[in-house]
Design brief:
The protein is built from two helices and no strands. By secondary structure, the chain is an all-alpha fold. It starts with 5 loop residues before the first helix and ends with a helix.
Length: about 60
């Protein structure tokens, strides 16, 4: 592997960073909102499943106890 001196490394790094396509503010906001919505939907789903399992177990345990 060839060694690169620090000046070449910095030059190559700047060249690579200039190729990066940064998201717009609107894209960042929309993506963030979508993440929060999906997190909320997931929380509601798992809370509902948990409630259903708990209710089912209470019914089964009350039948035998």
């Amino acid at each position: 592997m060839a060694r690169t001196n620090p000046a070449q490394f910095i030059q190559q790094t700047r060249a690579e960073v200039s190729k990066v396509v940064w998201p717009t503010r609107r894209e960042v906001v929309l993506t963030t909102v979508m993440v929060f919505i999906m997190a909320a939907l997931t929380a509601v789903f798992f809370a509902t499943v948990d409630l259903g399992i708990r209710t089912g177990l209470e019914i089964v345990l009350n039948m035998f106890g």
